Amino acid sequence: MPVIRMEFLIHAPQQICFDAARSIDLHMESTARTRERAIAGVTSGLIQLGESVTWEAVHFGIKQNLTAKITEMKEPRYFVDEMVAGAFKRFRHEHEFIPLEQSQTRMLDTFDYTSPFGLLGKIVDRLILEKYMTDFLRTRNEYIKSVAEAQAKDIR
Question: How would you list the strands of the sheet with 62-74, edge to edge?
């Protein structure tokens, strides 16, 4: 059961970072290489507590769907999305935004998941999936950082 943790320093206020991370439109932009798109539930704008989104994407050459629901939210500090249906056995994805001095925000991202298929899933995690997910999340978080910083620069 891998847990992927990342931390980013973003030169933007907490609210901008929080909104960027829960933007359906920004998510689709940041995952263009996997052709991820929202096909059901909330399909644009900012997702809210109790709402869900179904993503269609191509991973490892296979088109697949995944539905996630926002199960916790304390705006603008924290939100959690959890898988409702999809390829994983389960996942919990925590997003935390800690305000710092000079309109900066520390973004903490924790992705805790279990692959399906028992022992085989654990082997695939070690050989392929954990690195794939780490790279996927890093690319997405770097995109969130760049968009948030550009938005903050525009309002200065």
Answer: 3-10, 104-114, 90-100, 78-85, 62-74, 52-59, 37-41
pLDDT at 156 over 70: no
| CA 1, 132, 92, 77 torsion-angle sign | positive
Per-residue pLDDT band for 127 (boundaries 50, 70, 90) equals confident
**Which helix (H) or strand (E) is 70 found in, with range?**
strand 62-74
Give residue 39's identity as a one-letter amino acid code.
Answer: I
Q: Residue type for 75, please?
A: E
Q: Tell me how far apart the alpha carbons of residues 126 and 97 are, in angstroms, rounded to a whole number.
A: 29
CB-side exposure of 133: number of CA atoms within 13 Å?
24
R_g (Cα) of the chain, nearest Å: 15
Q: How far is CA 143 from the centre of its chain?
A: 11
What are the structure tokens assigned to 148, written together?
């948030």
